Amino acid sequence: MGADPQRDDLAGRLHRTEVQRAESSIPGRIIVQVLTEIPEGVESGWHTHPGEEVGYILAGTVEMQLRGSATLRLDAGSGFLIPPNTPHNARDLGPGTGRMLSTYVVRDDRPLASFAPQDA
User: Fold this and answer.
1) Three-class SS of residue 6?
2) Whole-angstrom distance, CA of residue 42 vs CA of residue 62
3) Count of CB atoms within 10 A of residue 32's CB?
């Protein structure tokens, strides 16, 4: 199986809890579901995932920047989709800690998340 999600690039910035992990019907892919908690005012940092991220905001308001797209303001109850390898940055606008549930369909031979250059 792929890399331990606790060892990817974002592990030091956000509190993430892996909910479940399973093989996918797509060869070379796994499905990983993660609960992410972002303290108010904290940014994830620009990063990518080696596959799709399908997410849902459980609490708070999150500003989601996707390279090449308009910035999204996501309130509790909002869903989002981030294409594979798309640099993005999430920032919690508050009040309090933002919580999101994300499901990733990703390559099993790469870390779940990797930092991306800001100007790329």
Assistant:
1) helix
2) 10
3) 24
Number of H helices, E strands in the chain: 0, 10
d(CA 4, CA 14) in angstroms, rounded, equals 15
pTM (predicted TM-score): 0.85
Residue pLDDT, tens place only, 8-62: 556 567 898 999 999 999 999 999 999 999 999 999 989 999 999 999 999 999 9
- φ, ψ for residue 7 (rounded to 5)? -105, 5
Structural domains in the chain plus CATH codes = 5-109 (2.60.120.10)
Tokens of 96: 């309090």
